[in-house]
Amino acid sequence: MDATPPMHSKTPRANDWPTVRTQWLEIYRSVADRGRAQHQDRPRAKVSGHSIVLNRNLAAPPKSDGQTDPHLSSCKIEMVSYGGAWPLGEEGELVVQTATPFRRSARDVPIHFLHIRKTGGTALTEALGPIAQEFGIVLHAHNTKLSDIPQDHRVFFFVRHPISRFVSGFFSRLRRGRPRYNYEWSEAEAKAFGRFVKPNDLAEALSASDAETRTCAREAMRGVAHLNSPYRDWFSGEQELEDRLDSILLIGLQERLSADFEHLKELLDLPPKLSLPEDDVLAHRTPREFNRQLTPLAERNLSNWYAEDIRFYDRCLKLRGLHAL
After folding, report:
1. pTM score, two decimals?
2. Domains of the chain, with CATH numbers?
3. What is the three-class DSSP state of 155?
4. For the segment 129-179, what is each residue's pLDDT rounded down to a tens digit?
5. What is the largest CA-CA distance in the chain?
6. Do strands 154-159 and 111-114 pair parallel, antiparallel, or not at all (unpaired)?
7. How far apart are CA 92 and CA 82, in angstroms?
């Protein structure tokens, strides 16, 4: 269904902007997919911080000479005036009063990749490694937190639903990271995998009626690498995301890894032929023959165990939607 943009005869007052911004964000979400499909060769405008997308055809705002800058892949728009034009139509025009563009050709700060465990980071690192230095991308190991990145630098990262992340982490450590890696079990991991050989078994045991089984399950959750790595290993909490919105370039989703990688390429003007590894070993993917199924009981137990991580993941989804991150 088509949306009609809000009508104003003049630039809205400052206290009108929250409402106007919300209306335009709704329009942006409704047309973004269609706009991308229809205008694959055009730069995109990007919602960021307190900005709103108000560019016809989802194209970048024109330069002072009236020409669209082909290198402009993202812009932060602080204030706009408009005459009620339809954002994807041919009539009317949306005029940017103030815009701070993010230009690949003029970038003067590094762009950091936070590698959160079991979110597709190995595949991303494999793809970006050969061109990282050329494009100013810093690929970090697992121990780098958002607070370690300077406030005036840009950063991107990927997240994954904690229950899916648990399954992936369980199988990764069950295999000792093989075949790509070979990290021997710790004493706690050897004990855990001596008792639990399926992620569903471990998850269900968290609420077992037998006290010994519950204790073993909780020890496993705290002792197995990946399973004991909450999002707080990289972020102090939801407020830190809010405070760092201006420096966050992209919140990617492991569930949309391929599509979000293509979006990242657009944002950074990376080579079009750059691709994620198709080989399961290079990407460090769980082999297809492993049983990922979880019962409703297992999912409920994991939802309780990872409640904080699920709230954080949901917040990432909201920020991603509101600010087109």
Report:
1. 0.67
2. 14-103 (no CATH), 108-325 (3.40.50)
3. strand
4. 999 999 999 999 999 999 999 999 999 999 999 999 999 999 999 998 777
5. 74
6. parallel
7. 9
